[in-house]
Amino acid sequence: MSYILGIESSCDETACAIVKDGYEVLSSIVASQIAKHAVHGGVVPELAAREHLKGCKVVVETALKEANLTMEDIDAVAVTQGPGLMPALLVGINFAKGLAMGYNKPIIGVNHFLAHIYGAFLGDGKEDLENPDSYPILALVVSGGHSSLLLLERDGKATHLGWTIDDAAGEALDKGAKLLGLGYPGGPIMQKTGEGGDNKRFNFPRPLTGAAGKALSEEHKYNFSFSGIKTALLYQSKFLEESGEKIEGQLLQDIVASYQEAIVDVLSKKAIKAAKDFKAKTIVVAGGVACNKVLRERMAELTPKGVKLRIAKPVNCTDNAAMVAGIGYHHFMNKEFSELNFDAYARLPEISEVPFIK
Ligand code: KG4
Ligand code: ZN
Fold first, then answer.
1. Can you tell me the distance from the alpha carbon of 56 to that of 13, in angstroms, rounded to the nearest whole number?
2. Ligand 1 atom with minimal separation from the 186 CA
3. Ligand 1 atom 14: the closest Cα is on which residue?
4. Could you tell me which of 186, 147, 187 has the C-alpha nearest to residue 167?
5. CA of 208 to the centre of ligand 1 (A)
6. For the chain, what are the domain ranges?
7. 238-285: per-residue pLDDT in tens?
8. Pocket test for ligand 1, best of 12, 184, 291 (most atoms within 8 A of CB)
9. Atom of ligand 1 nearest to the CA of 317
10. Using DSSP, how many helices (H) and how many strands (E) does the chain show?
């Protein structure tokens, strides 16, 4: 039996969780800083770091208390090493190092991006991960920082098929909401505002899909691009305002629903196309944007018969430490520990394997 304590501080959530044997979440505490950043319209890195500084102790104590455990019971400390905001990462890492050193526990730096994928397997995912018939797995990772398609194979080999060449899907939703004066973070606000809206009223572009008569190059087959959608929204809203229309009520709902639809349409079609091309047996959707109701429903509609769809539970989609502790367990079992002087990384390194498939 092993208990891994995970710490997450890559962006604007200070989180700690304790996971038993890699799948059973005993406690998962997330202290959100959203209110602090919302007044600035986005995450301010230094502010995030200072909030983590205040929050780490509390989330760790609460997670231990909720799990009814003490540090003596913990087998290893896992912490997000990157990618993320450097000042924010450093706080969680330093706290984790202190904890590991003080209690003489091994420390494990984990990849936040891969942890998001693992988040879809927390709880009941062990059987699926261990079943050879689940492979290959096509993972769609959609968050504030990433929009990526990954292929995971039975031997643990991972191929990063595509990513965004500009903005991430969550970033496009956040920037869209900001542009319309709806607040931060944009994803959940856009989902709520778009409910009841006509998603066909405005035709936002679908970049890198081969729509609009432009042939899609091999290079961009599985890549995404979302900055053009945001620019189209800017021009559309300017046009409406100059025509004397106020963007509110039904018009606001329609414009938001159409904007969200363009993003969901691109994400779902590209993911399904990749799954078909690589004969995936499982499709995983993870990351903050995977909370989105429209995306979840669309993926369920489009997933071919015989392919299992695994979408992370909403609490495991947005940043949390359960996914960090969970993936940390697999590093622990593989005896992949970090040195106490390990550094953080801001950008996603090249990915060729995942620790949770062996
Ligand atoms: O995974 P996450 O918490 O942080 C990153 O690693 O980036 O993702 C945050 C992103 C934000 O862009 C937020 O707007 C988006 O996830 N998000 C949503 C929803 N909830 C959060 N996007 C669409 N619909 C939602 N319900
Ligand atoms: Zn994240």
1. 10
2. 14
3. 187
4. 147
5. 22
6. 3-119+316-333, 133-311
7. 999 999 999 999 999 999 999 999 999 999 999 999 999 999 999 999
8. 291
9. 1
10. 12, 10
What CATH code is assigned to 3-119+316-333?
3.30.420.40
Does 215 or 327 have the greater pLDDT score? 327
CA of 25 to the centre of ligand 2 (A): 18
DSSP 97: H
- What confidence tens digit (pLDDT) does each residue in 301-348 have? 999 999 999 999 999 999 999 999 999 999 999 999 999 999 999 999
Rounded to the nearest 10°, the torsion over CA 4, 5, 10, 13 is 130
Strands, sheet with 282-286, edge to edge from the N-terminal-most edge strand: 158-162, 147-152, 137-142, 282-286, 308-311
Would you say the CATH fold of 133-311 matches that of 3-119+316-333? yes
* Candidate CATH numbers 3.30.420.40, 3.40.50.720, 3.30.40.10, 3.10.180.10; the one for domain 133-311: 3.30.420.40
- In this structure, are strands 137-142 and 76-82 parallel, antiparallel, or unpaired? unpaired
SS (H, E, C) 131-147: CHHHCCEEEEEECCCCE
In this prediction the pTM is 0.97
**Cβ contacts of 323 within 8 Å, gap of 6 or more:** 6, 8, 115, 116, 118, 119, 122, 316
**Which of 296, 318, 323, 324 has most ligand 1 atoms within 8 Å of CB, for mutation?**
318
